[in-house]
Design a protein that fits this description.
The chain is α/β, with parallel strands linked by helices and 258 residues long. 40% of the residues lie in helices and 19% in strands.
Length: 258
């Protein structure tokens, strides 16, 4: 299996914005093992270099089938997956890894910025996405957010809200005999909303405390898409509901007694 290690080339495929020393100081210091699956060698080399520069231990693979095999066989803290790959596409890798390893951190990387592609990535189980071309700062913000997320919330909580049991250990939401699978991120959202029943939770709150974004003002529809998916799963259990209410222009609020 051909695997690539970092080099010191400069690559135009990624915007060559420098990462300042003070920004790096705020990043997680623990070295993370990261698998990058990208068929463009120039972009792959650039990503490996940036990840090493920020203190991580990346491995690069150009082929989708080899990437899937490696992701399933070995242990990684994070997967960064291009969508358009030889043999097996990034969505398929994401979906199969998510089934086998529910807690695996995954970022989808694509040149397609349409809402349909973003939604498809989240449906496959991605924790986040990034669209090419991207700045180094945005890349590392997203990488570090996914890596740090598991340390913020334990993820094994058990919640009972409006007749629904949310199981953080098995990642399910159930009412009696009916059950749906939920993602780790969806469970984290429910836990956060439940812990803050007394107030409105803004998108910035969720980006900062659930996604662990260093820059919570970043423009992203990640929160909206995750809330939409979570609402649909809740609706499949108890019908149309307002368990997660929207306060226009402000954010979200859990409505356990509505």
């Amino acid at each position: 299996m051909k695997q690539f290690q970092p080099n010191t080339k400069q690559h135009s495929a990624i915007q060559t914005e420098s990462v300042q020393t003070e920004e790096r100081a705020d990043m997680q210091k623990t070295k993370a093992r990261i698998l990058v699956v990208e068929d463009d060698r120039a972009i792959l080399d650039g990503l490996l270099d940036v990840l090493v520069f920020n203190g991580h231990d990346p491995i690069g693979i150009e082929d989708g089938a080899e990437g899937l095999e490696t992701a399933l066989r070995e242990k990684f803290d994070l997967l960064i997956l291009d969508v358009m790959l030889p043999q097996v596409d990034g969505f398929t890798i994401c979906s199969q890894v998510r089934k086998a390893k529910p807690a695996q951190g995954i970022i989808i990387m694509t040149a397609k910025g349409s809402e349909d592609d973003i939604v498809q990535g989240f449906k496959a189980g991605a924790d986040d996405y990034i669209c090419k071309p991207f700045s180094l700062r945005e890349l590392m913000v997203r990488v570090e957010a996914v890596l740090r997320r598991s340390g913020k919330l334990t993820g094994d909580e058990q919640l009972d809200v409006r007749g629904i049991h949310f199981d953080g250990t098995n990642l399910t939401a159930s009412t009696g005999d009916d059950s749906v699978e939920i993602t780790r991120r969806e469970m984290d959202i429910m836990v956060y909303l439940y812990r803050h029943l007394d107030r409105i939770v803004s998108k910035k709150d969720l980006l900062r405390d659930v996604w662990n974004y260093a820059d919570a003002d970043i423009e992203t529809r990640t929160v909206d898409i995750h809330i939409l998916k979570l609402r649909k799963k809740i609706a499949s259990l108890i019908g149309e509901n307002h368990l997660i209410g929207t306060v226009r222009g402000e954010g979200y609020r859990l409505e356990p007694d509505a």
